[in-house]
Design brief:
Layout (H helix, E strand, L loop, with lengths): L4 E11 L5 E10 L2 E7 L6 E6 L4 E4 L1 E6 L15 H13 L4 H17 L2 E8 L2 H11 L2 E8 L11 H12 L6 E3 L1 E3 L7 H14 L3 E5 L3 H11 L3 H7 L7 E5 L5 H10 L2 E4 L1 H6 L7 H7 L2 E4 L4 H4 L4 H15 L8 H8 L1 H6 L16 E4 L12 H7 L6 E6 L2 E5 L2 E2 L4 H15 L1
Parallel strand pairs: 1-4, 1-5, 6-7, 7-8, 8-9, 8-10, 10-11, 11-12, 12-13, 13-14
Antiparallel strand pairs: 1-2, 2-3, 5-15, 15-16, 16-17, 17-18
Helix pairs in contact: 2-3, 2-16, 12-13, 13-15
Length: 429
């Protein structure tokens, strides 16, 4: 018998792109794509049927700024401001890491993210080949990028990152899950010559760019002192913003910066938990939204956040925006949820992701509506933004493949990951 569908998700409460709720629905999946959304009993034949039990089915989260291997540094550099945190704790620790450490640290991050409903990450780090293999093995999506740093007069094509980019592009060419892009770490860790070269390289190879932007007040002001312009204006002058760009943090961006970013289509990726923990500041959400900047959300790394929960990120972003603007109605739960889903997918260049719709990839999360904090559920989006926790995730699916269900990891040997992380912790610290 030829089956019309690979998988049928039945008896589901669907959260549709416009925020409406569809009860007792069926979602048909074929080739990793949603091919049908139907009322009960109206779908075609299927190879595999999953009874959702009347629970809530939503798009997964797209973590638009992460450093996944930093799970191995969780809790290591506490109670320090950003620059001291980096120079005194993190950079010396990272010098000890091996490719194996990064591989298993990435798998640990995948475990945490899948358990919390995250299906994809935009990830900037090193030992990127090991990271890509980890995401691929875990069956999860990633926009993978080594980070450009440069302190001398070298051209971009003379730097090790250029060779790394070639190797990554060859290994993951056409990969359905792993997309390769290029990162510029920040203005203060690079030179104008290397940044211009990176922009030229990305333009030549059709790559997206990922960078840190105005994360701290000192970074922002020192760039003005060095270059006479803000970091955003600096990257514009270097030709970076003529490309698809995701800019993480943007805490100290000015209204003029946001207007520039909106005009250029740059996505601002807010990481509120990390920004607060490092006392970096609070993003000017009013200026960002008034300018019409594309918004996505990220966790940053587990060393600066201690967790990789997009649920926490959504709630904190919303609360900070309301408080900063002294307006309880400033931002809606739907706007925040969209930033964590379709906004993050857009930032990754995954135009067919982030929604439950025919033609979208089947990156889906099933939430337990019987959990105490989901009762009563007047509005599912409000419940997810303000009340849900990772323990309410019953299933996470990436491209139609189940990676996590009812406490079990379907693609990751979780005991091996725990063993390797314990070994690495003993050896490193």
């Amino acid at each position: 018998m030829a089956f019309l569908l690979d998988t049928l998700l039945k008896n589901a409460v669907l959260l549709l792109p416009d925020g409406t709720v569809c009860k007792d629905a069926e979602v048909g999946i074929r080739g990793g794509e949603i091919v049908s959304i139907a009322d009960k009993g109206k779908s075609g034949e299927t190879a595999d049927t999953v009874d959702c039990g009347g629970n809530l089915l939503t798009p997964g989260f797209y973590n638009a700024h992460a450093h996944s291997p930093m799970t191995i540094l969780r809790g290591y550099g506490e109670n320090l401001p950003l620059m001291r945190w980096l120079t005194e704790r993190i950079f010396p620790a990272e010098d000890k890491l091996t490719a194996d450490d990064v591989y298993y640290g990435t798998l640990l991050a995948c475990m945490e993210m899948a358990r919390g409903g995250t299906v994809s990450a935009s990830d900037m780090y090193f030992f990127t080949m090991a990271m890509g293999e980890a995401f691929s093995d875990a069956g999860m999506k990633v926009n993978l990028s080594p980070a450009l740093t440069c302190s001398d007069d070298s051209r971009f094509d003379e730097l090790p990152i250029c060779k790394t980019m070639g190797e990554l592009s060859e290994r993951f060419a056409g990969h359905p899950l792993v997309h390769v892009e290029l990162s510029i770490h920040a203005e203060y860790t690079t030179t104008e010559k290397s940044v211009r070269g990176a922009a030229d390289y990305a333009r030549e190879h059709g790559l997206r760019l990922h960078l840190h932007l105005s994360e701290t007040e000192s970074e922002h002001n020192e760039c003005i002192a060095r270059n006479g312009v803000t970091p955003a204006q600096y990257f514009e002058n270097c030709g970076v913003f003529s490309l698809p760009v995701s800019a993480a943090h943007c805490v100290w961006c000015t209204p003029e910066d946001f207007a520039l970013m909106a005009r250029r289509g740059v996505t601002a990726v807010s990481c509120p938990t990390s920004n607060l923990k490092l006392a970096s500041g609070i993003i000017d959400s009013a200026a960002l939204m008034a300018a019409g900047v594309h918004l996505a959300l990220g966790t940053d790394g587990a060393a600066s956040n201690n967790g990789l929960s997009m649920l926490e990120t959504m709630k904190l972003f919303s609360l900070l925006a309301k408080y900063r603007n002294r307006d309880a109605a400033f931002i809606t739960p739907q706007q925040v949820f969209d930033a964590a889903t379709v906004g993050g997918a857009r930032a990754q260049g995954r135009g067919d992701c982030g929604t439950i719709a025919v033609g979208s990839r089947a990156d889906l999360v099933l939430w337990n509506l019987s959990a105490p904090t989901m009762i009563p559920c007047f509005d599912p989006v409000t419940a997810l933004v303000y009340a849900a926790d990772p323990g309410q995730v019953k299933m996470t699916m990436v491209d139609g493949r189940v990676v996590y269900r009812n406490g079990e990891y379907k693609t990751i040997d979780s005991e091996r990951v725990r063993y390797e992380m314990a070994r690495a912790s003993r050896e490193l610290w």
